[in-house]
Amino acid sequence: MRDVAIIGIGHTKFGRASKASLELFSESVLQAIDDAGVELKDIEALFQGAALAGFEEGQVMSAAFSAADLNLGPIPATRYEGACASASIAIRDAAMWVGSGEYDMVIAGGMEKALTMGTLFATRTFAMACHAPTEGPVGLTFPAVFAMAAMRYAKNYDIPLEKLREKMAHVSIKNHKHGALNPLAQFYKKLGALKLEEVIDSKMVADPLSLLDCCPFSDGASALVLCAAEEARKYTDEPVYILGTGQGSGGPLSKMEDLTKPVSRISSAKAAFKQAGLTPKDIDLVEVHDCFTIAELIALECMGFFDWGEAADAVEEGQTELGGKIPVNMSGGLIGKGHPIGATGASQIYWIIKQMRGEAAKGNQIDPVPEYGMTDTLGGDFGTLCHIILGRSKRKK
Amino acid sequence: MAGMAQEEIEKELSRVYTVLTYEDYEAGLKEGRLFGLKCASCGKITCHPMHVCQWCSSRSLERTKLCGEGELTTFTVIRVPPEGFEADVPYIPCIVETKEGPCVMGRLDYDAERATPELIGMQVKLSGAYTYEGDKYSGGAHTCPVFKVVG
After folding, report:
1. How far is B124 from B146, CA to CA, in rounded Å?
2. How far apart are CA A144 and CA A131, in angstroms?
3. I want to staple A130 with a disulfide (CB 3.0 to 4.6 A). Which of A57, A135, A207, A262 is the partner?
4. Does any CB of chain B come closer than 8 Å to the CB of residue A155?
5. Using CA atoms, how far apart are residues A383 and A58, in angstroms rounded to an integer?
6. Rounded to whole angstroms, how far apart are CA atoms A150 and A143?
7. Which residues pair with A287 in a beta bridge?
8. Count of C-beta atoms within a 10 Å radius of residue B39
9. Quick check: is B37 in a domain?
10. Catalytic: A387?
């Protein structure tokens, strides 16, 4: 396989959008094309994450219409659906196709208009990523999935639930602090100085998770230009290389051995590290899938940044902040930046690359710029996991 | 000569791949019975039904009945429902580790305002079934087990 680089990035404002998702996606593609300094005619294939477009706007086969909206011609254009990990699996496959030599330059990214649906219907459609025959009739929701994981986390490590709620609240406080500094975030200039009590006292959604433990519903799109690594420097002085990727699958919650140690996430992260030839110690920052505060803790432990049961204390101690052991979600994460589910994986990569270029917002930027970054994206109740490791220099042979 | 006799094709089509369907599993729940699958290879029980043993992937499965007793491993109280479940709020989804081994997802019949983490580890027993009549996306009605705490 050839090495693959990312040479252009695009990202719409996350939040509530009046434009259609196809318009949002095209905007993010044009930003990425401009950023890369390439032409639309150079694009040979399109890989698009879009999870719930059929329910949001009555639109399926969205990838073909995106290719048409940009006059890309009859190139292959494919929609990927892996719930909230849709964009990440689209990008991973795009990297495979470029790596294989089939294409030299492609677009990969994703889009979503979830906020448009309103809380009641959005909660219904998100729950479609639960196991419909057995979890459907229970009336399971996504907050409920992670609430049950939080209950287990408290039990496994013998943490009183009220104490765990405080520890989890620090994830929300941190991510909102970064989101408030990020002009593209849904909560830009909002909720940037949350107090512990505000998180704890916010409306209960699914015990023990309250509203400020949860990411919002969001509209938005993000896109990347991928090309063969050997060509990357023709277009940019600052290519970012895809060093390793991993993907894992899970099933219904009742078939999992331990909700706090999803095998899908552990195996996906391991595969990415193995391919990159790196370990957690090498990584300078991560964007992880903090759909809920507890999810960030579980992610960090599964990826190997902290031992089992230690992430809760680490966040409280500031080890996941600037200057800490591993800065986490400096973009604001899903909680502060927003979570247009089909776009999230591309957005996570966008913000890792912004950090590598030294272009993150002041207050969020790591200095000196990071050498290695990693994304973690989760779809469903641990059903689809994807990890992507990025570096400023090519993989060591 | 290329081609197959219709009888041969029909014979292939009649092979059974699904030993216990969701339909039969749910029908059992409605009658107060928790059906599963016993594996001829490893002897373990699969529940809810799958096409292979959930422990060893063997296809040698036969239908069995579980006792309906087990231990509560986790739960939550849902206060913000999906569309279609507004009338149920607050309600308690739970996971139960059955005496026979596999965990099943269901609902807990318990006062939501008194549901505290101390419930985890308690013994529960199948006490009924909950049927969601479905919306236009659910492909009809589906039924899940309901458990109650026995100590």
Report:
1. 10
2. 13
3. A135
4. yes
5. 25
6. 10
7. A375
8. 21
9. yes
10. no
Closest chain B C-alpha to A202 CA, distance in angstroms: 13
B11 within some domain = no
Whether A131 is a known active-site residue: answer no
Nearest Cα residue to A59 out of A89, A28, A27, A24: A24
- Is the domain spanning A1-397 CATH 3.40.47.10? The answer is yes
Pick from A79, A78, A28: which is nearest to A184 by CA? Answer: A28
Contact flag A154-B73 (C-beta cutoff 8 Å): no
The verdict on A205 touching B (C-beta cutoff 8 Å) is yes
Number of domains in chain B: 1
Chain B residues interacting with chain A (CB cutoff of 8 angstroms) = 22, 48, 54, 73-86, 88, 91, 93-95, 102-107, 115-117, 120-121, 130-132, 135, 137-139, 141-144
A137 contacts in chain B (CB < 8 Å):
130-132, 141-144
Q: What is the 3-state secondary structure (H, E, C) of chain B?
A: CCCCCHHHHHHHHCCCCCCCCHHHHHHHHHCCCEEEEEECCCCCEECCCCCCCCCCCCCCEEEEEECCEEEEEEECCECCCCCCCHHHCCECEEEEEECCCCEEEEEECCCHHHCCHHHCCCEEEEEEEEEECCCCCCCCCEEEEEEEECC
Q: Tens digit of pLDDT for each residue in A227-282?
A: 999 999 999 999 999 999 999 999 999 999 999 999 999 999 999 999 999 999 99
Q: Does the reported pTM lie above 0.90?
A: yes
Interface predicted TM-score of the whole assembly (ipTM), two decimals? 0.96
Alpha-carbon gap, residue A392 to A285, rounded angstroms: 13
pLDDT tens, position by position, A286-341: 999 999 999 999 999 999 999 999 999 999 999 999 999 999 999 999 999 999 99
Facing residue for A141 by CB, picked from B81, B132, B139: B81
* pLDDT tens digit sequence for B91-106: 999 999 999 999 999 9
**In chain A, domain spans:** 1-397
Q: What's the alpha-carbon Rg for chain A, to the nearest Å? A: 19
Domain of residue B111, residue span: 16-149
Residue B3 falls within a domain, yes or no?
Answer: no
B2 occurs within a structural domain = no
Amino acid of residue A155: K
Cβ-Cβ contacts under 8 Å, B49 against chain A: none
